[in-house]
Design brief:
With about 270 residues, this protein is α+β, with helices and mostly antiparallel strands. It has twelve helices and four strands. About 35% of the residues are buried.
Length: about 270
């Protein structure tokens, strides 16, 4: 059955993918859930992922390979399937606040608070909620790992992919906005894109406001205008990241974060000069 409703179409793909994991893991699969914007709202057909959570009875040698192979096979089945992002772990680990598969703290929190059950037993209330400091440290490590690489810093200084890849453009602009909102307004849970954008643009003289508004329009499906984006990126992207890094560094110092993490942020800031 086909549908013109993008949310319904994405949910249908999520259901098909959940059944595929069920076929692979059989009685070891406890439950599958929708996460992300398909669970809490705000799904954007242009740029949003289809986030799934797979909860297993236990983890065994070979599970990571099986999960990766299955996910890549599913992602190769169509344009919607390419949006698939799967988080997974065992129920005992989730109860203990641990990750024995691929299930970062922010996503475990999202499962506990907002996961939408697709198949199996509803165990979301059994998932341990990560502490606020754990969420801060993990999101900071994610930011350094993903956004402070040589490749990304070079791209920020001399944009190429950002001019043609609407998913990367919106993520690059809105990641720091979400991080800032999460750390300032919604500590203890991850801010959604919609609430982070609204919060950020309501601040007095927000840095790179026009760039954030442009990313919001692109996220809603408006086409990229490379000429306009070039000037907006040049004026706003690096100042936006400097602002985020400065604010995050202050938060890390307040919670006595590991010295190497604070140093990583300091070096990241220097490379964006």
């Amino acid at each position: 059955m086909t549908t013109t409703d993008p949310v319904a179409a994405a949910r249908a793909v999520a259901g098909d993918c959940a059944r595929a994991y069920q076929d692979i893991f059989a009685d070891r699969l406890v439950a599958t859930y929708l996460l992300g914007s398909l669970a809490y709202g705000g799904y954007s057909p242009a740029v949003s992922d289809i986030d799934l959570a797979v909860v297993l009875t236990d983890t065994r040698d070979g599970d990571a390979s099986t999960m990766n192979t299955t996910t890549e096979t599913l992602r190769g089945q169509g344009s919607l399937q390419r949006k698939l992002s799967t988080f997974w772990a065992s129920l005992p680990a989730l109860r203990a606040g641990q990750d024995d598969g691929r299930f970062p703290a922010l996503d475990r929190l999202q499962l506990a608070d907002q996961g939408v059950l697709l198949f199996g037993d509803d165990v979301a209330k059994q998932v341990a909620r990560p502490a606020t400091d754990e969420l801060l440290l993990e999101s900071a490590r994610f930011a350094v790992d993903v956004l402070a690489s040589d490749e990304v810093i070079s791209e920020f200084h001399n944009p190429r992919r950002l001019l043609v890849d609407m998913v990367w453009f919106t993520k690059a602009v809105l990641f720091p906005v979400r991080f800032l909102c999460t750390g300032t307004k919604t500590a203890g849970r991850a801010a959604t894109n919609d609430e982070a954008i609204a919060w950020y643009l309501a601040q007095p003289q927000p840095i790179a406001a026009s760039l954030v508004r442009m990313a919001t329009r692109v996220r809603a499906g408006h086409p990229l205008d490379s000429a306009q984006i070039t000037s907006e990126l040049a004026a706003g992207l690096i100042p936006l990241y400097r602002h985020y890094i400065d604010e995050e560094t202050r938060r890390l110092l307040r919670v006595n974060a590991p010295a190497e993490l604070v140093t990583a942020f300091t070096r990241w800031r220097q490379r964006l000069e």
